[in-house]
Amino acid sequence: MSNFPTSLPEPRVTPLRGGPELRWGVLAPGAIAKDFVNAMHRHTDQRAVAVAGRSAERAAAFAVATGIPHVHESAEALVGDPEVDIVYVASPHSEHKRMALLAISAGKHVLVEKPIALTAADAREIRDAAKAAGTFAMEGMWTRYLPQTDVMMQLKRDGVLGDLQLAMADFGTRGSPDPSSRVYNPELGGGALLDLGIYPIWFSHLWLGKPKSVTAIGNLTSTGVDARTAIVLGYETGAQAVLSTTLMAFTPARASISGSLGRIEVNPWFAVPAGFELVAPGKGDVRIQFINDTGLEFRDGLAFEAAAVAQHIADGLTDSPLHPFDFAIEVMETMDDVRRQVGTLKC
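Above: the chain's sequence. Below: its structure in C-alpha cell form.
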C-alpha cells in the first residue's frame, strides 16, 4: 500500500461568483424550484427573472417569496420571453418532456430536474430536439457538480481504488401518507425509483458504467407506484452494484465504492453536499477524510450546478462535459429495465 495517497486532491468546481450570469425562467413553482432559486440567489450571480405555473396565484406567491420580478400566465408565455436565457423545469416528472421540448422549440437553453423524463425514449426526444436547435440541454443531476464528486472522480482517474469491484448505495425516505399526493400518483411519475432511486443508480453508473445485467425486486403501493425496490447490477468486469430505494422508511442514504486497493465511503445523504473517507483496508485501516467545508448544506448545493451550467453555456457548449446527455439516457435505460421488472413500466 506504499502508493496509497496521504492527501486528497482539491475539488475543481466552477466559482459560484464572478462568472457569466444567466437570466432564468422557472417552470413550475414547487418545493424543489423554490430551493433552486433560493440557492442561486444566495450563493451565485445567477438570477431567476420569470416564473409560470398552472396556477397564476401560486406562481405569484412563489415570485414574491423568491424575489422573481415577472410572472407569466402560461409556460408558452415564459419560454417566449426575450428576457429569459434558460428555462429551469421543475414540474412533476410527467411534464418534463413536454416542458423541455416547449423551451427548446422557443430556442431556450434548458435544465430539467432529474429524472430527465419518464423513460429513455422520452429522454432521447429531448436530446435530439436540443441537438437540432443547437441549444444547451441537461438533466439536473446536481450531485455530479458537488465538490465531493469531483474529488472522487479525480481518485477514480488516478486508479487509487484499483480494480473496481462493488458499488453500494441506498436512498429511502418516508413519503407523504396522502395517497393523492404527487409521490403516490402514477400519472405524475410517482414512486420511489424516479424520485429517489435514480441517485443510487446514477452512482453505480458513475463508477462502473452501463451494466450488463439488471435484476430487481420490489412491490407497489395501492395506487400502483413502486413502494420499495432492491436492485443488483452486473458488469462485464465481474463487478456488481447493490442498490435500494424506498418510500416506506428513512434509510441511511449511504454510498460506497470498493476496489482491489481501497474504498470510498460517502457520508450519509450522499446525494447532497457531504464528506467522504478514502480507506485503505487492512489491519488498522488508513482513512483520509474529505470534509465539506463549503458552508453549503442540503439543497444549497444546487448553487454549484447553476453556476456550472452558466459557464458551460458561456463556453459555447450544448452538452455538459460532467453529466452528458447520453450518460443521463444510459441511466434512464437502467431505470426502464428496473421499472419493467417491478411492474411500473409496461412497454
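The mean pLDDT is 95.
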